[in-house]
Each structure stands twice: as structure tokens, then as C-alpha cells.
# Entry
Amino acid sequence: MELKPKTKEEISSIVQDAMQSAVDFVESEISEERIKAQRYYDGEVDIGYEDGRSKCVATKVRDTIRAVKPSIMRVFLSTTKPVEYVPKGQEDVRLAEQATDFMHHEFQRLNGYRVLNDAIHDALVKKMGIVKCYFKTYSKAKIYTETDLSEDDLNLLLADPEVRLLEQEMEMRMTADEFGVEVEAPVFSVKISHGGMKGELCLESVPPEEFFINRDARTIEDSYIVAHRTEMRAGDLVEMGFDPEEVFNLDSLDSGSEITETEVLARQGYNEDFSEQEGADPAMKNVTVTEAYMRMDVDGTGVPVLHKFLLGGTKYELLDYEVCDEIPMVKLEVDPEPHSFYGRSLAELIWDDQDASTAILRGILDNVALSNSPRLGFIEGAVDVSDLMNGEIGGLVRMRQSGAIQDLSVPFTAGQTLSALNYMDKLVEQKTGVTQNIALNPDALQSTTKAAVTASVEAAAGQTEVMVRNLADGIRELFGLMLRLSHKNMDEERMMRLNGQFVPVNPKVWDLHMDITVNVGLGTGREDERVAALQQALQLQTQVYQNYGPMNGLVSLTNIRNTLTDMMAAAGVRNSDRYFAPINQEIEAQMLAMQQQQQAQIAGQQQDPNAAYLQAEQMKAQAKVSTDMAKLQLDAQKAMAEDDRERDKMAQDLLVDAAKIYGQHGTQVDVARVKAEQDRLRTVAGIAQSGQ
# Structure
């Protein structure tokens, strides 16, 4: 057989056949089960009911899924780094830590919690959840118009790699050259865009009814075709560069499969109608767009290469195609079926139990109603029927003869039937592993030993643990896909704030072959037991660090901080950065260098034989200065006290002498003036003493 390149018609035919086959498989064998699962989750059952009887539904599917989903989400999101990249060698440790921090930053930026929540919900209800991760490029350019440009000016403008020429006009004009001579030269007017293409990671949860795969596929990687079919506005396709006439002729799912419409309606609860918008504005028309991934030998080399095909309408008309590296979709599932792509959902395991529990519950309610309001028999013509039908409490019933009314009471058997309902609850617990809280389960509390209670908890959590491990495989693949897309598409270094500090990030230097681990709390022990274990680990870490120093080779500050972070996460506190400063190997190395420098200074001082003598002499000199100052202050205080005593004696002598003069001669002495002069002299002496 001669190998030759395929024509567009041949490519289109192959893709259309493969796509239609995948759609037929999913809609005929998978969609019906997903629709039923959604109905049961919404509180519907397939068993009928009689008029006048109970219509109550035992919502086992919804109750079980709502009970187990918080536990699953807590397992993955209870730590700040649920997924880590593991380096191959010591030289890759810093880059692996950087990649881990960057990917978790991107995961949070892209609202990863909501995406993961939706995908896990789909896996629990509808067999699997699909997460799509891709790199989206978009233009950040601004449009400018430049006029009266010479040829040199134009060449200089277009030399900028971020400038793209959109429109150009040229005319010949007479201009002066460098010698002042009038010559005819071209003058340009151009419209340009300035600014390059930007790109970023994108993350979304794909609705199950929008995902298609071939019948014999086992994984996404080994599939013949994988497709994502959705709805777009016609105007969006025109903006992407497709022919408007071709786009406006495409149809949508409104005129396509009834099964898909039913599944969409089951999920949304309503049906969208865009007929009014379509009539008002064709650009707002909804058209079906399919993004299909297939391996095909387009060039005739004999080697199939993965391509991305863009198909339009429900007939899957080929719009465009290109070579690509990988399929940007990851599957999450809770109960995989060996050697098959589609496994089982949690809803499938218990929807029959919901029918049985509903029938039992309705019987109990009907029995209670009939027991509380029994039917009556009466002799026709002997009882006033209007009185009998009147339900007034204490009302009278007129009878023409005794015994005309007979009680047709129904025995109350609801109490016995409750055991059957409890049996159905236990049956659901056995199938799913979702059981009552151990603290509220009387049966579990009958165990008198801790070992027996622990065994009961582990047995109940075993199936939940299996579901978590199955989901962890999909999450590991998702973070691997994010790593590869970042490595391929992020060409330039950028500054990002990671762990509280701005660092340069360049995904090009990361190792694509790093192992990926998922740090999920799969243990079945209680939270307080895990906290106690972490506390013991912290104590041992602290002892090793204190006894053997920072170069012990066993425990680092990063290890200690990780333990503290896990302790807070186990207690329900995830934002540990508010309480403990971020730390990485670079920061720890700086701290270690500073500590070694301080130790070297201390050691140098200890080795200097004159250091102790000089320090002792310095301390003696400081002590002598302090003693001399204290002695001077004491002497000054003594002098001031002696001066005060002399001046007090002089004041007393003054009063005595004044009295003698007045008694002998009758002359009045100005004692106040003399005393004021003495106080002045005392003040001057005090200032002089303090100056000393």
C-alpha cells in the first residue's frame, strides 16, 4: 500500500466517522445510566405510587454522597501542599520546591477547589469526573496609527518584535535629502499592534455529557479518539478567524441528539432556548463545537501523530486541525472497572437500595396514617353520612339503630417494619463504607476496648480510603499535566510571590521527569491521635536539632516547620503562614551561615590569650570611674549639708543679736533683708558645688 498525504476530505471523513461512533457508544450505553443516577440524586425513584398514599422518597443516594464528599475533599485539601514534586537528585531540590509552590499558586489562582469539587461530585454521581487543563494564549496588543513615516522610520518601527503590521499605505512625495536636494521618496502610513501574545494555564471541569471516547478505550492515553463537545456563540468562532458564512450555517445540539438534551436537562433542571436571540442577532446563535484528539498519519509517513481537530455542528464538519503534544484532559473516578474506561459511581451501587428503602418508608407512613385515622363501616340508610364525614372533634353522628357504625382499624405494624428500614441502612453502609459517626453509633460503643473500636472505624473507612486512592491517581496526573504545559509554554522568566517572598520563576529549567507524590491523609486514626503523633515527632526533632546543631544531617528547620504546619492542618487551620514565617533552603542556608559566623567570632575570642585580660582591665576601669563619680557626689552632698548648718546657725544668731540691739538701744533691725542675702549666698554656693 502506497503511503501518501491525506486530503482534507479524507481527514474530515475519518474524524467524522470516529466521532459519530464515540457519540453512539456513549449515548446508547453510558448516558442512560448517568441520567438515572442524576434522577436518583435529585430524589426520584422508578417505583410508582397510588393516589392517596405516601409519595415520600428515601434519598439514600444524595445522603450518602453528601456525607462522604466532605471527607474526601478534606483529605486532599487539609494540607497546604497536597501534591509535591520529588527531585531526582540533590541538585534539583530547590527547583522541585519551586515547582511545587508555583503549581499550588496556579491551582489556587484558577479556583482549583471548585474545579476539584465539581469533578469529584461527577465521579461520585456519574461514573467519572473530567478535568481539562490547557494553555490559553491571548493578545495584549494595542492598536496604533502612524503617518508620514520614511522608509527608515518604518524599518526601525517594525524591528520591534512586539510590533505587528496590520495595514500599510504608501505614497510618493517630494522631500529634501541629506544634502538639501529635492527628491521623490516613499512616505508610509501604517496601522500597527504593539504588544505580544500572553498566555496562562486554564483549568475547568468538563460536564460528563460533553465528553466522548471510543468504545474500546481503556485510558485517555491509549484511546483512538477523545472529544470535548460544547456550545459556542457563532460570533466567537468568527472572531477566531473562521468564515462567517460557514459558521452561521452550523447547527447546535438543539437540533441534535435527544439523549444528550435529556442528560443536560437532568443536570440543569431546565432547558435553554436561544431562539429569540438567534432571530435578533445571528452572531449570538448557539453552534456546536467539538474539540477532538486523534492519532492520524496525515502526512503519509506511516507514523500516526496526535492531532487536535476542531469540528463544527452536529455533523462534525472539519474547521481546522493542528499537531499537538498531548490530550489536555484527566479522568477522576472512585470505583474503576478493570480493563475498561468507565467504572462505577457511588450512585449506581445504592440506587436499588433507594427503591427498597422508599417502598419500606412509604409503607410505614401509610400504616401510621391508617392507624391514626382508621376507616369506618356503616349500615347504609341507618347513619347520617354528612355527620359521619364531618371530622370535627367531639362531633355527633346521628344513627337510626345501634351498631350502625363499625371500626375498621388497621393494626399498627410500623414499629416492626422499622427493623427492615434499619437493615437497608446497614446494607448501604456495607456497600459504600459511609457509616454513622462512631461517637453516635450505639452498636460501635458496645465495644469495650480501644482496639475493638479502632477496628470498627477502620472497617467502615476502608472503602472510603480506596475511593480516595483512586481519585489521588487522577490528581497526580493533573499536576503532571500542569507541569508539562508550564514547561512547554512559559518561555520567559517572571517574578512571583511564593511563600511570602518574590522569586524569579522559569519553568523551562524544571525537570519534567520528577516524580509526583500526593500527600493525602489516608490514615483512619482520629485527629487527636495524629496531633499527638506530630507532637511527639516535633519533640524528637527539637532534641536532635538542639543536641547536634543545624548540620546534624537528620532534621532541618524546614522539617520542623513542616511538622508545625501539619499540626495546624490536623487541627483545621490551613493558613499556617500567618503564624510561622515561610522558610526554604535558601533562607535556612542564610540562617546557618549567620549562626556559623557568630560561633566563629565567639571561638576567636576564646582563642585570643589577651582577650580575657583586656576585658578584665576594661571592666576594672569602668568600675573605678563609677566609684569616683559616686565619691564626688557624696562629698558634694556633705559640703552642702555643712554649709546649710552654718547658715542656719547664722540665721539663729542674727535673730538673737537683733533682739539684743532692740532691747539695749530700741533700734529695729531689718531681719528679712539680711535673711534674703543669706539665701542668695546659699544658692550661689549650691550652684558652685554642683559644678564641681
Summary: Residues 142-195 form one domain.
